[in-house]
Amino acid sequence: MEIILKEDIVNLGYKNDIVTVKSGYGRNYLIPSGKAVIASLSAKKMLAEDLKQRAHKLEKIRKDAEELAAKLEGVTLIIATKVSATGTIFGSVGNIQIAEGLAKKGFDIDRKIIVVKDAVKAVGAYKASVKLHKEISVEIPFEVVAE
Q1: How far lies 42's CA from each of 45, 49, 51, in Å?
Q2: pLDDT (tens digit, 9 = 90+) per residue, 18-63?
């Protein structure tokens, strides 16, 4: 089933993308919740017209994402957490802790766009990826230390 997304959905696509999903996911979740519409011929024509009219707005959003990416380039985080005697963390460090660390440094970034590749369960140096725009993502190095 082809649908047009009305908002960004993690691991599926971005706003105004035409994506193919399973019929049940589209009919039972995306369309009733207002996150997507069926990609009919008329809906595709309306989307093309909207994109043509909003091209300059989308360029501004992209430039804002590039500016934020430039500011985030030199940022490194140190996350202090409780650690056992063997050096393993109680729990794990994820996108929530990274979002809190970035907030302390003055960056208001939604935790949903932060991706930590591996499960962080030990003290050490890691990298997280922040997806600011379709084409723009920034890698933020962070270090987990004992509290």
Answers
A1: 5, 11, 14
A2: 999 999 999 999 999 999 999 999 999 999 988 888 887 888 888 9
